[in-house]
Structures are given as C-alpha cells and as structure tokens.
Amino acid sequence: MTADLVLSAPILSKLDTEFIRGSMSAALLTREREQDLARRWRGSGDEAALHELVLAYMRLVISTATRFRNYGLPMSDLVQEGAVGLMQAAARFEPEREVRFSTYAAWWIRSAMQDYILRNWSVVRTGTTAAQKALFFNLRRLRAKIEDGGGALDERGRALIAQELAVNLADVEAMEIRLAGADQSLNAPIGPDGEDQWQDFLADQRPTPEESVTLARDGRTRSLWLAQALDELSAREQTIIKERRLRDDARTLEELGHKLGISKERVRQIEHRALEKLKSSLLQRSALPNHLS
Fold first, then answer.
1. Which among 163, 126, 171, 130 is positioned nearest to 146, based on CA atoms?
2. CA nearest 112: which of 171, 68, 50, 178?
3. Domains, in order of start, for the chain
4. I need a surface site. Which of 81, 124, 147, 273 has the fewest CB within 10 A?
5. Residues 78-87: pLDDT tens digits?
6. What is the rounded distance in angstroms from the CA atom of residue 293 to the CA atom of residue 282?
7. Mean pLDDT within 222-242
C-alpha cells in the first residue's frame, strides 16, 4: 500500500484555519522517534507509524506553501501538492542513512510545489530545463536585490543574474520577457470598442500558394534529375548508391562488400566514383536553360 492512498483523505481535504492550526501545533518528533516510525513503516507497513510521521511534519508543507503564495495559485492547491511530496519522502526515506526526516522531506515538498507551479502558472509550458526552472524561481528575487526594489533590468543586471545562476544571458532575457506578460487570448479584442482581434495581426508563416506550387515543381524536377542520373551508373554503382545513400537503414561498407564479393575498401572507391558521376550529371542538368520546365 502506498503512502498517497493511505493519507489522501485526511491530508488532501479542504485547507482551512483549523487544519493549519492543527498542523502547526503537532508535536515535533525526536530523531529516535523518526527512526522508529520510519523503520516500522518500511519494515512492516505500519500505517499508524506512517500517519504519525507525516502528520508531524505537515508544518513543513504549510511553511513552504507560504513561500510560493505570490505565484497566483490557490494556497490549498499548494498545500495539497506539498502533501504529496511529503508522502513521497516518507515512502522513500531510508532511516539507516542517519539523516533527519525533516531535512530529507523538505526537498520533496519544495520540488512537488515547484513542479505544480510550473505546470499551472501559465498555459504556456515554462521551466522545461534546469536552467529555466532556476530562473523562474529566482529571477524576481535577484532582480529586486539588484535594482533595489524592482524595475527593469539593464545589461549589467542581467549579466549578474546569469553569473549567479550559471545560465546563459539569452535565457535571462527570455525569462524576463516571459514573466513580464500574463497569458492573453488571441481572440481578445485589441481595443474596448474595436472588432479586431490579436490573432488578426499574426503573420502566416506558411508558404504562399505560389511558393507551394514552385516548391512542388522543383521537388518533382529534382526527383526526375536524380532518377536520370542514376540510370547513367553501372548496375554495381546503382546498387551501392541505393544501399548506402537512398535507404533509412544504410548498409555498411563491409555488408556490401560481402554481398558483391569485393573488399569494403573497393566498395568505398566505387561509391566515391559514383557520387562524383551523380554530382556532375546533376550540375549539367541544372545548367540547362529549361532545367525547370
């Protein structure tokens, strides 16, 4: 039985004043009591020991949630995610390592809340790499420290943050822009009385009909040239080129040598010569006045 199933009802209920008061007033555990409870849970699956261990440190979840309350997400959701992290810590805690459970659980609680914030802060995925995650949770703090209360960062400030967090300057600039703007629907009107929407001013990056026709025609022409150039090769040259260059799972020189009864070095020489022939043939065709007709 896993910890999340055992504790989901009492811990993941609606957050209220009574719950907070009860969590903050729970008795602290001694190192010896932590070790005993952890061993009972891991050794024999004692659910009562697991409840006591986790409930004693719900204060850590409440305390950590207050640090992330300025990200615009419900406090109850943060506590719920932190409780999941706390239960994961309880399930993985190894008492024989002689580490306090509170120290071990703090990382799991913080990580669970941070992952939840990154998933729900914006409809656009944020913090997909370790560098972006560090920027997301530290940029505001460092910016306020550098600018003495906030404001736009200058090049010097961005460079200091990049150095502090060991990230690229471009990542700092991108995250600064990302945090400065909130999500906005493309269907939202531009003005209070206007009918135009933001999406009406987005440039279409797809090829125009004329460009699509030209690309399709050029593709057919190149395919025809290649087929004609291949026909000018010998049978053995065609085999080597098709097996080495025109299939996803290309054959090795050794495989082709075994198939054709020659050495792999001879296969390499024939391949090189065939490629030179193909190149010369394609260049000649592209130089013709009606090469696209």
1. 163
2. 68
3. 3-120 (1.20.120.1810), 130-180 (no CATH), 209-286 (1.10.10.10)
4. 124
5. 888 998 999 8
6. 15
7. 92
Q: Which two tokens stand for residue 145?
A: 């420290």
CA angle 183, 128, 73 (to 5 degrees): 45
**Residue 83: HSE in the Cβ half-sphere, 13 Å Cα cutoff:** 27
* Lookup result for tokens 């207050």: 66
Cβ contact 62:23 at 8 Å? yes
Cβ–Cβ < 8 Å for 162, 168: yes
Residues whose CB is less than 8 angstroms from the CB of residue 94 and which lie 6 or more positions away in sequence, other chains included: 38, 42
- Report in angstroms the alpha-carbon separations of 21 from 18, 55, 62, 73, 188: 5, 12, 10, 21, 43
pLDDT at 166 exceeding the cut of 70? yes
What gap in Å lies between CA 36 and CA 5, rounded to an integer?
Answer: 22
Residue 189 has pLDDT above 80, yes or no: no
Query: Which CA distances in Å does 103 have to 12, 58, 126, 138, 225?
Result: 22, 13, 28, 21, 69
Residue 260 · residue 267 · CB < 8 Å: yes
